[in-house]
Design brief:
The chain is an alpha+beta fold and about 210 residues long. It has two domains: about 35 residues, no CATH class; about 170 residues, Galactose-binding domain-like (Jelly Rolls, Sandwich). Helices cover about 15% and strands about 40% of the residues. It is built from four helices and eleven strands; from the N terminus they run αβββαββββββαββα. Helix 1 runs antiparallel to helix 4. The chain is globular, with a radius of gyration of 21 Å. The two termini are about 15 Å apart.
């Protein structure tokens, strides 16, 4: 076998280049790139006071008292196409202020959400991290996870990275529903091993034939 072709095939077994797919993950450029929904606000310059990395700005989400379940937060679609075997690395940071503890079953999540059909049909979610009523206040939680797409996940119409506050319970009148902050959100797609290198090998073979 031609040594160059052999090297190309060897590279195909180990290659995989991550592509940055989320913009403005630290909200330093306002809410550019993000879709805001439900009871959420920001971003605000609270990074250094809360202890977030990189002195980031942050957004906050909370209950809307409009029934249960109720969803609030920020979301951004992950750019590009998806293929079976691709891996999405994702995560971010969350924080709860003292006095803003989450009530009952209320929770806040950093997650991937898979949408189907016209792009608005919920399929399933993969959670990197969750804050709930047992989570400490005045503490930065850093979450990091990865998810490898199977055929069903790769067929999603779109995949979004979400910071979502889920109001599962409404407190008694005058009670605190809770609130959570988030920043330093990220998601990047790592192609299935060998995918890019095999494309390169195909180009190499075409050039060889033309030579």
């Amino acid at each position: 076998m031609n040594t160059s072709l052999a090297a190309c095939l060897l590279a195909a077994t180990v290659s995989g280049v991550a592509s940055a797919s989320i913009t403005n993950g630290d909200f330093s450029n306002g809410s550019t790139g993000w879709t805001q929904f439900g009871g959420s606000e920001g971003p605000y310059a609270v990074g250094s006071s809360f202890g977030f990395d990189n002195d980031s700005d942050a957004v906050v989400a909370y209950g809307t008292f409009g029934g249960t379940p109720n969803f609030s937060g920020f979301a951004q679609d992950i750019a590009g196409g998806y293929a079976e075997g691709d891996t999405i690395n994702f995560g971010g940071q969350m924080y709860i202020e003292n006095g803003k503890e989450l009530f009952g079953g209320n929770n806040a999540n950093i997650q991937l959400t898979f949408w189907y059909g016209s792009g608005s049909d919920f399929g399933f979610a993969v959670v990197a991290g969750t804050l709930d009523a047992s989570s400490l206040t005045d503490n930065v939680y850093t979450f990091a996870s990865s998810y490898t797409l199977d055929a069903g996940a790769a067929s999603a119409t779109r995949i979004s990275l979400d910071f979502t506050y889920v109001q599962a319970d409404v407190p008694p009148a005058g009670g605190e529903s809770g609130a959570a902050w988030a920043t330093n959100m990220y998601a990047n797609v790592v192609p299935a091993p060998g995918a890019l290198a095999l494309i390169g090998c195909a180009g190499f073979r075409i050039r060889r034939r033309r030579a």
